[in-house]
Amino acid sequence: MHCEGCAEKIKRAVKGFDGVQEVKGDISNNKLTVVGKVDPEKIRERIEQETKKKVVLVSPLPKKDKRGEKKPKEPVVRKVVLKIRLDCEGCIQKTERIISKTKGVEHVAVNPQKDLVTVKGTMDAKTLPEYLKKKLERRVEIVPPKKVHFIE
């Protein structure tokens, strides 16, 4: 901002934002002070668009309230053992390929002797058997984990 005209042009551009309460221009220091609840990045972009010059934010961005923020949930890695009839090498490869392409699956281990498939990943373990039943056209069951008994 080198003159009063530049300062007024910028002030008018910023005053139109929702949440802006007050705008002050300091020509001697080339600074603009904006008071209110408004996104500083959006104001910076608007001023750059109006002046066709680079604008730098001097004050730090306001910190968000940590109580109001929700942390994104970390996906839980699960291990599911499925009982699927595996007749031949072709069935095994098809089963392994379909399961490994499923969203969230990280690892697939096949035990053809016992007709068991162990799946590890962040997939939805409840809907996986139904999905595989449709894809493989076979019966798919979840094998419940063995209960461990402790003797005191």
TrEMBL record:
Q: Which domain of life is it from?
A: Eukaryota
State the protein's name: Uncharacterized protein
